[in-house]
Amino acid sequence: MNKREEIISLWFEMWLQKKDLGILKIFSENATYIESWGPRYDSSKKIKLWFDEWNSRGTVIKWDINQFFHKENQTIVEWYFECQMEAEEATAFDGMSLIEWIDDNKIKFLKEFGCNINNYDPYKSGNVPKFKDVEIGWF
Length: 139
Prior knowledge:
By secondary structure, this protein is of the alpha+beta class. The chain is built from three helices and six strands.
């Protein structure tokens, strides 16, 4: 397995285990991490703070990697994510992460993109779209 794929897999595994297995070793000191719904963490220490705090009130149930794309100092990983926060129903979505690396295979930038898994055809019944009457998700 590609070294960068191993690092990304380790990051996902940390969430599944709810255990820091080397956050400060895989993110550069001045790394930036942007979640798909808006929060931004600037520095590896802030990323670790978020990881520790989030895992005190939530659980990642699944974080499956579907595929990787590599180009120079960038990687895109496509994934499926499922989690449950305290006293809430589990939620799931498809996503992708855009990752930029520095020379020593540390992550300097990671930006997530989310996609609702409840897809449908609004034109199934004709030329006038019929959209579901549901609350729009957070991404």
